[in-house]
Amino acid sequence: MCALFPGDSLGRENTIFQQFTQHIGRQIHKDKQAFSQANSCISWFYKLEKTPPPAVQGISWNTTPSSQLEVDCLRDYPSGMDEARADFAKTQSLLSVSLTFYEFALVADRNDDATYSPTELQDLLRSLILSYHEGEPTPNQVRALTERFDNWYRSRNMDALMQGMSDLYERGYRVTPSDRVELDRVMG
After folding, report:
1. Between the CA of residue 113 and those of 19, 64, 100, 106, 147, what are the distances in Å?
2. Of residues 133, 128, 65, 139, the one with CA closest to residue 101
3. Is the model more confident about 63 or about 183?
4. For residue 54, with 0-12 CB atoms within 10 Å meaning exposed, 13-18 middle and 19 or more buried, which class applies?
5. Cβ–Cβ under 8 Å, residues 58 and 25
6. What is the pLDDT of residue 62?
7. What residues have CB less than 8 Å from 93, skipping those under 6 apart?
8. Which residues are within 8 A (CB) of 145 and not within 5 positions of it... i.e. 6 or more apart?
9. How confident is the model at residue 3 (pLDDT cuts 50, 70, 90)?
10. Per-residue pLDDT tens over the stretch 94-114
């Protein structure tokens, strides 16, 4: 009901929390898929390299891929194993950033009520080197948070993210058991 009344603080803060964590969650889902694909292809290329070639190749030998994984790996990594390994490292790094940012967003909700109180929101924005203006429209704050995530994600700016987390920790914020459960759910 609070979400129906934009002037209501609880609805406003809940909206910011929900939209921010959902934005990060969508990226985590994409990152997990990309990471899984790269990992599967590394395994597939490794097995391919370890499999001895057929003793005799007849005239009708067919190089048509035999599985969807083979099709995907040959399409996504035409240069083979080295290209898959490079993508694996990249996707692993991006997944690490998105998961850490999600943890950060959860930690900023100090009391685990799925809302950012005015103090939590102020601390969150400050720790992300963003300005806080009481009464600023919710869409502007959501946009500022998601843009910061997108920028730091693209640049894999883990240093700034960890500095922000450190700032929250210095203010008494911690990873709670509830945060841990949610992180395990998202990682699963």
Report:
1. 15, 54, 20, 10, 24
2. 128
3. 183
4. exposed
5. no
6. 43
7. 156
8. 16, 20, 23, 124, 125, 128, 130
9. very low
10. 999 999 999 999 999 999 999
Provide the pLDDT confidence category of residue 167 given band limits of 50, 70 and 90: very high
What letter would DSSP give residue 122? H
d(CA 49, CA 89) in angstroms, rounded, equals: 20
Q: H helices within the chain, ranges in order?
A: 9-50, 68-76, 81-107, 118-127, 138-154, 158-170, 177-187
| pLDDT score, position 2 | 37
Are residues 106 and 21 in contact, defined by beta-carbon separation less than 8 angstroms?
Answer: yes
What's the token pair of residue 38? 């790269």
Instruction: Specify the pTM.
Output: 0.83
SS3 132: coil
**Chain centroid offset of residue 45 CA:** 26
Q: Exposure of 74 by Cβ count < 10 A (0-12 exposed, 13-18 middle, 19+ buried)?
A: middle
Q: What is the largest CA-CA distance in the chain?
A: 76
Residue 111 CB contacts under 8 Å (≥ 6 apart), including other chains: 117
Kindly give, in sequence order, each residue whose CB lies less than 8 Å from that of residue 173, ignoring residues fewer than 6 positions away: 107, 108, 110, 123
